[in-house]
Design brief:
With 149 residues, this protein is an alpha+beta fold. Helices cover 31% and strands 26% of the residues. Strands 1-2-3-4-5 form a five-stranded mixed beta sheet, with helices on both faces. A hairpin with a 4-residue loop joins strand 3 and strand 4. The termini are far apart.
Length: 149
């Protein structure tokens, strides 16, 4: 169900990203052009990561932005799940579970090689997502800090 996104998926991803940010807004608003720029950059520079789409019956119902970074502490490449969205009517069907399984399994089709770790951020008030991630072994005690430039 999860596959690498193509250019024909771009506007679906933009719409889903806007829905994600309406449901669970981050600290900075995301605009459609910013999403399009990210998708172009990921295609031009695949070493940075990729966009993936979840299809059900041939229709995109979810997406994720998978971003690569190297961690000295973890001893390898980390797959950062920068954004993950499944349309509300498709939640609870195991689609996010399928994504995590694909990223950590031995048969890699979404990520070049098995990563040293998966990373993600979740807002404190998104209890449903926090519970899902906890079931997959995600733990977090660190405070993420940023300085926008």
């Amino acid at each position: 169900m999860w596959r690498l996104a193509t250019t024909s998926d771009d506007e679906h991803i933009v719409a889903m990203c806007m829905a994600l940010n309406a449901d669970d807004p981050g600290p900075v608003p995301v605009h459609p052009q910013q999403v399009r720029r990210t998708l172009v950059r990921l295609r031009e520079e695949p070493h940075r990561g990729s966009a993936v789409v979840c299809e059900v019956d041939g229709h995109p119902v979810g997406y994720a932005l998978l971003i690569s970074f190297w961690s000295n502490e973890l001893g390898g490449e980390v797959c950062n799940i920068d954004e993950l969205f499944v349309a509300p009517e498709y939640r609870g069907r195991g689609l996010a579970t399928d994504l995590f399984t694909m990223l950590t399994g031995s048969e890699q089709s979404l990520w070049p090689a098995r990563p040293a770790a998966l990373a993600l951020e979740v807002s404190p008030q998104n209890e449903r997502a926090r519970a899902l991630y906890g079931r997959f072994g995600f733990r977090g005690n660190n405070l993420a800090m940023r300085r926008p430039l």
